[in-house]
Task: structure prediction
Amino acid sequence: MIYSGKAITVTALDNGIAELNFNLEGESVNKFNALTVGELKEAGAALKAASDVKGLIVTSGKDVFIVGADITEFGKNFTASEEEIAAGALETNKEVFNQIEDLPFPTVTAINGFALGGGLEMALCSDYRVMSTVAKIGLPETKLGIVPGFGGTVRLPRIVGSDNAVEWIAGGKEQKAEAALAAGAVDVVVAPEKLREAALDLVQKCIDGDFDYKAKRQEKLDPLKLNDMEAMMSFETAKAFIAGQAGPHYPAPVAAVKAIQKAAKMGRDEALEVEAKTIGKLAKTEVAKNLVGLFLGDQDLGKTAKDWAAKGGKVETGAVLGAGIMGGGIAYQSALKGTPIIMKDIAQAGIDLGLSEASKLLSKRVSRGRMTPEKMAGILNKIQPQLSFEGFKDVDVVVEAVVENPKVKHAVLAETEKQIREDAILTSNTSTISINYLAEALERPENFCGMHFFNPVHQMPLVEVIRGEKTSDEAVARTVAYALAMGKKPVVVNDCPGFLVNRILSPYFGAFMRLVKDGADFVKIDKVMEKFGMPMGPAYLGDVVGIDTGVHAGEVMAEGIPSRMGADFTTSHEVLFKAGHYGQKTGKGYYSYETDRKGKPKKVFDESIKELLAPVVDAPKDFSDEEILDRMMIPMCLEAVRCLEEGIAASATDVDMSLIYGIGFPPFRGGALNYIQDMGVAEFVARADKYAELGGSYEVTDKLREMAANGEVFFPV
Result:
């Protein structure tokens, strides 16, 4: 044994070949935490001192190679100064990864599974790479708001060329074996069972002199082989394109290109200094902090959901009541992910609409080459359309998705309960009606909860699992299990008007309608909020959701929380609703809609809409972007605070992740509570107080004032 640690061992094999094996104790995957990095340094030193070693293979004892850095350590590491972060990255590269790259004998890495981030960077340090046909590689760091920090921006361009490296690093996508071989990122691709044999064979050929590993290594040490004109054309074009793709809120992709460009004429060691300075600068941005937080929040969300699901058992068969667009979307999602589902409606027209929705979504996959016609047929066969309750005794979970009418839902739920097993779980996809109220119609309210999907079902990741006063843990657990089986992100919340996401969204729309009433231009409001990072502004969002839906939801929220959700004026939504302008579905809302060349609705400004709203709008007033942003965001953020304080959601992470996955809250801002924290709790409270005269939705809670006074935060580092 040349070296033995808790993450790495180095063993002497036959013919002077050594094996460096990654196998992190107590973990299901290998990752570069502080322990692993420290042991790699020690293992490299041991190999350098081992006079009888003639060659090295690098392997993994896990099903993956290395999934990357331990992101849970980022928060602590990124609290250092920009200079300290850069110095630490450079030191790690020189003392750890350069040491492996500079070993006095040939090295071959065997990539058996995922080699992402630092995992791929480790592999790039070796002279050759052998990859399994089932493995994937990539450098996803830009998705976390940073750039590769273990030499990826230096070594990859020198191995695959600058164009390929820019595409891989800026895009952050995983690459399959075939693409990796074509780009030159790996040298050999073999079946999994032949991987070790191929690595041993390749390193032996290097030892025997059949391959010039020193020449191959030198290419990574030298500057990029580009003349000035080639470099300018390559990098300047790439920067312009990537800046357009990434947008102004995500600086890491362009920063990665700039780092590669700046280091193009440098040797390895000098180039690594450029990379280190880039990662030091990006690590101190709020974008990186929030994207790292989003990654960790997603892990927390997943762990909580899996813990719930473990108590609920597998869902073998589901059912949806009410075919339509929503029912068809739910049926599609269930069947797509492998759970057979009964789709019931009271009319054949509904069945036809639901099947049409599922077929349309599957046909898109076929047309894009993501699915074969045969597989599409198999998925459609998992959807059983019917007008009766036949087969409902075999169903584990039923999702009610009929019209949003309390009386209708009461009747449908009560009738359905009589048709299912006593242990089956009944859920409602209601977006506004109280789960406690709906449970009044049931004999087994303990087996009932909300299962709120967001529209369109196939695109929106979030599912709110809403717990009523009598809902059992078993009901929650099985519903969460079904949501996970459908590939969704379930969040368990408690019953209240609007539940979590719609409750937080309601005062946002209220703020918008008050701004319009006060004379603000709704087109400008949309532009300000889109610039902030929202997928669409509130006027456009209202049109997409449906003005009729918005008015109905507003009435429910005003009845449930009149102090903050009610309006003491006639709203622009109400005017549009009375005029029959329901948004995209009728061709007119805040905007008019035309069909573009692809058959999709395209919004167009319509002066007649402003004339229609004029009687309920004050004289036009030019609000500043800052005032529009404050007036829109403060009510939303304060409602998020209240939902946390009242226990509607279990944690600040649940609140923010729900907003990101449910309404597309800008990921780089981290969610409403993160937005408050990034601004500073005290600063946020001061801004809210400026608008206190606008009503209850701008009123700061006592607990938030205490947090501001005591310097407390929602997300401790």
Remarks:
- The radius of gyration is 29 Å.
- The chain has 31 helices and 20 strands.
- The longest strand covers residues 17-22.
- Residues 315-495 form a domain with the Rossmann fold fold (CATH 3.40.50.720).
